[in-house]
UniProtKB/TrEMBL annotation:
Domain Pyrrolo-quinoline quinone repeat: 130-179, 232-448
Record-linked Pfam families: Beta-prop_ACSF4 (PF13570), PQQ_2 (PF13360)
InterPro entries xrefs: PQQ_b-propeller_rpt, PQQ_rpt_dom, Quinoprotein_ADH-like_sf, TAT_signal, WD40/YVTN_repeat-like_dom_sf
Name listed for the protein in its UniProt record: PQQ-binding-like beta-propeller repeat protein
Coiled coil feature spans: none
Bias (Low complexity) ranges: 27-36, 49-62, 458-473
Organism: Halosimplex pelagicum
Positions of the UniProt region annotated as Disordered: 27-62, 85-110, 452-494
SMART domains in the cross-refs: PQQ
Amino acid sequence: MGDQQPRRRRTFLRRAGTSALALATLGAAGPGAASTVPESDAAGDRSDSGGAPAGSGSDPSAALDLQSAVSAGPTRWPQFQADAVNSGFTDVPGPAEASTAWTFDTGSPGRATVTATAAATGTPADGTSDDPTDNVVSSPAVADGTVYVGSNSGSLYAVDAASGAEQWAYGTGSGPDSREEVMSSPAVVDGTVYVGSHDGRLHAVDAESGEGEWTFETDGTVFASPTYRDGTLYVGSQAGTMYAVDTAGEEVWSTSVADRVDSTAAVVDDTVYVGRWNDDRTGSVVALDAASGEETLTYEARGEVACSPTVTGSVVYFGDYTGVIYAIDAGRAELVWGRQLGGPVLSSPVVVDGTVYVGSFGGTFWALDAANGDIEWSYETDDQIFSSPAITGDTVYVGSGDANLYAIDRESGREQFAVETDGPVLSSPAVTAGAVFVGSSDSFVYAVGDPTGGESVSATPPGGTDGSPSGTPDTGGSGAPEETTAGDGPGFGAVGALAGLGLGAWHRVRTGSPDDTGPDADD
C-alpha cells in the first residue's frame, strides 16, 4: 500500500508555479448576489488587472487560523465533521498504525431498497432499487463511550466504542418491513441522538436506551446530516427545503432554497451556509439568517453543490459537481480563488493551519494553500473520494471508493497506513484519542487503533479482530523526488462530461436509480 503502487501515489507539488486562479468577481455583491463565477473555462483565466487574487483585500490569510470552537475531544466527535462549522479537526492524536480493534456488522449486503427521490438526471426512482452494497454511508458520531451510526439497513445503531458490542438499534421507516436508509450522520447532544432518514423524517432518539423521543416530518428524504448549534438543529431535505428545528421537535422556520439539498449546513455565528442542487445542474452556497431563515447572500458555483461547506475566518470553502473548489469572501460574496480538480468535489473541505484538505471524484486527495489555492501536495487513491477528511495534528484520515481508509501525513502527503475493507468507503471518519471509526459499503463499521483509550476491555470484539508542509520532497533515498509532477496542477480548464467518472454508482446510492451514468446521462 505504499508509493510503489502505480496509481496510489503521492505527488509533491509544493508551489511549483502560479497560484490556482486569481479571478476578478463579476459584479458588486449584495443580498442574493452571484458574484463568484469565472468569466470563462480557459485554463489560467485571469481577468483582474493587478494580478492579485480577487477578494485579497479581505486578507483571508489572516483569518485562516485554527478553529477555536472545535467540539471534538479525546472521547468525542459528536456530529458530522466534528462541529457546527464542519471543521473536521481534532487536536487529539489518532491511531498511528493499521490495527483493526473491532468490526460491527450492520446487516447483510444485497437487500433491495426503494426510495422516492428522482435522480439529478431526471431518471424516475420510484419502484427502483438502490445499489444494494452501499450499506454504511452514514458517518459515525462518538460521545460518552458510544459510537452512533446509521445504515442502509434502515437503522440507527449505538455501539460500545471500546468493545464493538451493540447497545441498541433504532429502526426508521413507515413500517416494520420497510427499509428507508439512514445515510444521514447523527448529531449527539445532551443525551439525545438526532438523525435524518430516507423516510422523510428527522428522528430524536434517547442516547442511552434507543427509545424514540420524537420525529419531525420533512417534505422529502433526508440525506444531509443535522447540524446542531445553540439549541437548534439545521437540516435540509432532498426536496430542497432547509429546516430549523428546536430540540423539542418544533419547527423554528423552514425555507425552500433549491430543488434539492444534500449538503450538511455549516453554522457560524448567526449564519447558516448550505449547498444548493438544482435540476438544471446549477448550484451555489446560500447564506441564511440563523434566526429567521432569510437569505442574505449567495455564492454562485458552476454546478450542483452537494458538498458541505466549511467556514474559516471570513472565507467560505466548498466544491461543486464540475470539479471546482472555491474560496469565497463570506462578507462580500467575492471569489478569492478557485481551482479545477480532477472530478466532482462532494467531499467537504477541511481548513487547518493555512491548508485546505479535500478529496475529489477523480480519486485524488489534495492539500492546497488556503490563501491562494496553490497545490502543496496530492495523493492518489484508486477510486473516487466522497469521504470527508478528519484531520489531527499530524495526520489526515480519509476513505476512498477503492475500499480503503487512508492515513496520510499532513506535512509530506505520504501514506502512513491503509486499512482495507470489502467495499467502498463513502463514510467520513470520526477520530477520538488513539482511534478512528468509519463505515464501509461492506456493511461493517470499523474501529482502527485503540478505542479503549488505554483502558482494558473484557468484552471480546464482535465480528473481527485483529501546519503547512515542510516543502522538502521525499526522495526515497534516490536523491530525486519520488513520483513528482512538475507544474502547479490544473486550473479552471474546460468542464468535461462527467459520465465517464463513474458517477452512476454515486447517484444510485443517493437517489435509488440503478442505471444512471452521471449528470450528463440524458444529454
